[in-house]
Structures are given as structure tokens and as C-alpha cells.
Amino acid sequence: xxxxxxxxxxxxxxxxxxxxxxxxxxxxxxxxxxxxxxxxxxxxxxxxxxxxxxxxxxxxxxxxxxxxxxxxxxxxxxxxxxxxxxxxxxxxxxxxxxxxxxxxxxxxxxxxxxxxxxxxxxxxxxxxxxxxxxxxxxxxxxxxxxxxxxxxxxxxxxxxxxxxxxxxxxxxxxxxxxxxxxxxxxxxxxxxxxxxxxxxxxxxxxxxxxxxxxxxxxxxxxxxxxxxxxxxxxxxxxxxxxxxxxxxxxxxxxxxxxxxxxxxxxxxxxxxxxxxxxxxxxxxxxxxxxxxxxxxxxxxxxxxxxxxxxx
Length: 311
Description:
Strand 6 and strand 7 form a beta hairpin. The protein is of the alpha+beta class. Helix 1 runs antiparallel to helix 5.
């Protein structure tokens, strides 16, 4: 009986230094950067999904804030944002409906309730009275602006932001300033982090962890060993380069607000992990980076039957 001798054939060595499946430290760096990019994207998605657990300002709370400033003036809610966060101003022009969704915007704010109060005959006296009333009731008055065009007062508590404003109308000659409009416009919204930071932080932290856990095995299998993978990974990392560190830094800022290590700002501006991905001129690269991430996942899923690449 003749025994057939078989010779083990070593597997082919992929291109790379010393036959390693990754291109040395550049491959490992690319793997780490993609994992961090997925962590940032996960933080944005997790925070965005968690914000419905927050508590936007109600109509009653908005009216109470205005009546605290002007108890003797009639007030009524005119508009309110349907969600906790919104674009300001609302997207109404055709150019805005195309420009902002594609390129992003820089006026992304907490949702507010708009209240109209009045009529007012003496804006200077009314604003002086409003300032004194708010201080007496424990509000902090941050801004009192007076010029020929408008009067504005901004105040806050631990939970609420109030902005009172009255502007001039067009004069008889068609030029500004004319007389003051008899109606005041008040904008009332939540002050972070009350009711906002905790749900966003929890959702963003979970999303970041899931993104990191997904990113490490994903890049080990696909991104580093494959030339096509390196191209897609490099494109994704480059497109998300500006937004990723900001999104991850938002987690630290939210945590500092919750622990009291940093005072919450007085502003309607949004503090949210997904904001960097919607900011003006960052949204388009972020969308391109997201497409690259989707392509990486799809290709990795198609290759799931093969052995995972070693780091």
C-alpha cells in the first residue's frame, strides 16, 4: 500500500510588512481612529434618541415666567416648538430647506415657547418694572439692552430662561426707527442641564460604548487588512475628523454640568452630542463619513464568513 504524502501549503502572505495583516502602526492607528469615530457617532445617535425623555417648557410655565416679570400685563402663547430642539429661525425659505439639511446651520437651539404680552405704552418704565419684579422673585437678570431700535431683557432661574423684547416699527418715512410696537415678545425655554443633560448623557454614553465595541472588531476584520478597507476607513475618519472630538467632548461637559463642576450657561444654544454633526459646514462631511461607515459595515458583513484578520 502506497501512502500518499501530503505537504502542507502555507497560506499566502498578504502584502504588508513582515506578512502582518495590518500595515504596522499606521494600520493600528487607523483602526483606533475609526473606532473613536464610531464612538462619536454612537454618542450622537444615543443622545438624539434619548432626548424625548426630556421635559420641554410647557405653555403654563412660559406664561408664569412672563407674569412673574409683568404681573399686570395681558399675555398669551402665540407659538411653540413641537420638540425640545429646533432650528432658529424655522426653515421657511426654499434656499434654507436645501442649504441647512445639506450643509448644516449655526442657529440650532432649545425649543422655546413664544408669548406675546401687552399693550405697552412706556417700554422704558415697563422694562425697569420687569427687572425689579424678577429680581424680587429670585431671578437673575443677565442682560438689559436699550437703544433706539429695541429694548431687551434676559433673565434666568435654575430651570428657565426668559427673554423679553420690544422692537420699533417702521417710521412714516419708511425708515427705522419709528415708534415702539405696543406688544412685547417673550421667549421662554429650559435652562440646561435641568431635565436635559441626564437623559442625553445616558443615551450618549451608551451609544459611545456600543460604537466603540462595534468599531474595534469591525476594523480588525475589514479596515486594516484590505486596501479597499483602508481607503474607506481613511475617508470616514477624515470626514468625521472635526465632529468626532467635539461630540466626545460634549459627554465630559454634560457630566460636569450634572456634577456641578461647571455652571450651566445662560443661553438658548444647544449643548447636545449630535450638534457637531449638524453644525454649518460640518454636516456635509459628517454625512459623507456616515456613508463611508455604512459601506464599511456592509462590506464587513459580506466578509463575515472569512477568518477575522489579526491586528
